[in-house]
Amino acid sequence: MTRTIGAMSNRSFVIKCRVSEDELKSVNSRMEQVGIRNRSAYLRKLVLRGYVIEVDMSDFKEILRLTKICSNNLNQYARRANETGSIYKSDIEDIKRSHREIMRLLGELLDKFNSME
Prior knowledge:
The protein is mainly α. The chain has 4 helices and 2 strands, in the order E-E-H-H-H-H. Strands 1-2 form a two-stranded antiparallel ribbon.
């Protein structure tokens, strides 16, 4: 273990680790998968926490897609209500149905996060 002089933070010790080219490629690939660009930060998380959580962003993308659709529909319904002075009951039910689906997906995501150790 070596001690750096004049460190800008309270991290004044260096831990060295040798890896093969394939292992380095694997580390870099995993860093990219979890969206961490700083190797030191990535390795610190692995060492101190014992793991790095990989999040499947497809669930978030689906929620975002449904939210955009719901927002667009809501804007169309508001325009129609402003033009005609009324809104259809089916439009309100459509908004409620979309909202329930978004809330269901968010609930599933929260359950997944809560079950992580």
